[in-house]
Amino acid sequence: MAERWRPETHTFHLPEGEMTITLKDVAILTGMPISGDAIIGPTTKPEGGWGPLIRDRLGFDMPTTTPIQGRGHPPLNAGQVSVTWLVSHIQQEVEINDETPEEQVERYARIYLIGLVGGFLFPDKSNRWIQGIWLDMLTCDWDAIGQKSWGSAVLAGVYRELCTCSKVGAKQAGAAMFILQLWVWEHLPMFAPLDPRPYRRNDDELNFMQNLPYGVK
């Protein structure tokens, strides 16, 4: 599909004509909102570095120079945060239960969001770093986070990466390429895997799936 992508038109050139991923596709396949506030924010490191912001918003200190378990890269690198460090920090903490203070639950919900957005919806090619912009954006007011147009931002990222990886010599692509995979399965069914159990879903499964995005089905 990358080889058939044309950066001039942001469409796939196929023998039958042109096709492209639309905002409607993103909304239906993923359930992400495609209207609301734009995803914008500073991409540079704040004055004083990321440490004070992490301490203030997430409640813990992040080392700046110690490599993670001998893997050779620090938790902070310019304007990026290590995915490995973030995951390991969560795994080291106590399990959340009914008696966990609300403040702690909210703090780890924000850490999860940072990992989800920065590592899954907007990943880099190595899948090792999360852009620091998400630290600031996802530690603000909860309502403000939910009112942003996440679907349109993710689609813009997919478009940009397709433009990059369609060039001669490109070998990798970042962004949320799972959307392209789901889109291909839906619109070009000859590439879609067969459902291994199409007639064996019980009523509970079907009722549960009614409330999930189409891509999950």
Q: What would you report as the Rg, rounded to the nearest angstrom?
A: 20 Å
Q: Output mean pLDDT.
A: 80
Largest sheet: 3 strands, antiparallel
Largest sheet, spatial ordering of strands: 1-2-3
Q: Helical proportion?
A: 40-55%
Multimerization status = single chain
Distance between the termini: 23 Å
Q: Looking at the structure, what is the overall shape?
A: globular
Q: Spans of 5+ residues with little confidence (pLDDT < 50)?
A: 66-70
Secondary-structure element string? EEEHHEEHHEHHHHH
Structural class: mainly alpha
Strand content: 5-15%
* Tally of DSSP β-strands: 6
Please, how many helices? 9
Q: Could you walk me through the main structural features you see in this protein, from its secondary elements to its overall organization?
A:
- By secondary structure, the chain is mainly alpha-helical.
- Helix content is 41%, strand content 8%.
- The protein contains 9 helices and 6 strands, in the order βββααββααβααααα.
- The protein has helices at 23-30, 50-58, 83-92, 102-121, 133-137, 142-146, 150-165, 178-187, 203-209, and strands spanning 5-6, 11-14, 17-19, 76-77, 80-82, 129-131.
- Strands 1-2-3 form a 3-stranded antiparallel β-sheet, with no helix packed on it.
- The longest helix is centred in the middle third of the chain and has 20 residues, at 102-121.
- The two termini are 23 Å apart.
